[in-house]
Each structure stands twice: as C-alpha cells, then as structure tokens.
Design a protein that fits this description.
single chain, mainly alpha, 11 helices, about 75% helix
Amino acid sequence: MFIHLYMNDSILRLQNNIEPLRQQIIKHPVYNHIKDLEDLKIFMQFHVYAVWDFMSLLKTLQNELTCTQVPWFPVGHADTRFLINEIVVGEEADVDMNGVRKSHFELYLSAMEQCGADTTHIQNFIRQLKVSNQFETAYQKSETPEAAQQFVNYTFDIINSKKAYLQSAIFTFGREDLIPGMFLSLVNDMHQNFPNEISIFKYYLERHIEVDGDHHSHLALQMTANLCGDDEKIWQEVEQATIQSLQKRLALWDGVYEVLKNKYYSQAS
C-alpha cells in the first residue's frame, strides 16, 4: 500500500525520538578539532568508509525492491521501485565539477586525491575484499581503522538481515542531513586558502546537500514509509536499528576525534 508521507505519524515520531542522537552527531567535538588541511585529510580517511558502504546499502535496496535479474519479473510496488531507482541514478552516476559522470564514492576519492589524503587503506580494503570476499581479511590487510570497521560491520549486519524496511530506515535516517553548518563554513574558509586542494571536496559537500540532503532525503522518507506501512512492530524494529546506526556514526566520529586529539597532544609535548 502506498502511504502518503505527510500523513505518516510514525515518521514524525521516529524523527522526534532520534533527534537527540542526531544533535550529538551534528555537534560532535570532532569538528572543532579540524583546524587545517592535515586534519581534514585524517577526517576524510575515516569518512570515506561511510561513503563506500552507503553505496553498498543503496545497491542492496535496489536488489531487494526491484528486479535486477533476467528473466525480468515485476517486483513490489511500482512507486517504491521508482523511488529507489531515482536515488540510484543520482548516487551511482552523478556529475563532477566538469560534468563527468561519477558515483559519489568516486567523487569522494577524487577529492581525497586532490587534497593529498591517503587513499591507500580504502583502496587496499576494496581490493582485498574483491579477492577474498572476507571482511576481516580485508580489514587486516588494509589496516582499516577499528572505528571504520565497526561502522561497516553494522551496515552489513543490516544488509544481511534481508529486511528491506531496516535497510531503508538506516539509509534514510542514519545518513542524511548530518553535516553541520559549521563544518561547511570551515571547508569554505579552507577553500579560500587552498582552492587547488579543496575544490572537489567543497563541491562534493555542496552536491551532497543539494541532492542527498534535499531531493533524495524526501524520496528515501517516502520509500521507508511505504515499506513499513502501518505495522507498529516494524516501526519499533526500525527505531531500534536507526538508533544503533546513529550510535555507530557517533563512534566513527569518536575514532577520528581520538586521532586528532593525539596529534595535537604529541605536537604540544
């Protein structure tokens, strides 16, 4: 059954219940510790894992909610198929600053390379995962940070649940609209001093807000409302999963924060 988003009290209740956690993420002290280009590089080297597994979550939803096999058969509700396919196009084949088609993950890697952030760990992780299909092996051989490991593990726990409503929920509520204005101001200030190093990342953030945080967030909200319907047990399960997803995001930022704090302590001593 197609449920109109603006009549869905369950969405509003969930948003209200997770707002304190969202505010903890938006106001996390990690942002105050990003003071220069080197700090931003460290932040990106953690954050890129969340960008990558976001794409994995996205493609899982497409696989669950549409037919991606041959022979083709209609799957689910056409409205939901439209919503996920619309999001996939924007995330998997967006445009960079020059109008070249790229996924948001590939755009993020370009931003890292431009500013000199180390892409070795994430590239090795993907390479090892392709070969072994074993996350623990890929983590170990790529020296993936522990906080990033835990973040990705939770995402794939939800992916492996085979529950599209949970996948949609953490996609919708655990990822969108979590970039604070102060961080955007910081990046804009850095861009004035380092235009040749920051321009792609600045574009990525602006594109994220324009596409992910606006159009795609509305599509994702409607998709989640459709999948959960009026089943109260499902909404309770969704709330629990969303809270855990936000807690993993907090822990990821804690991991970055510890690295930045240790950096400044070592410099001061």
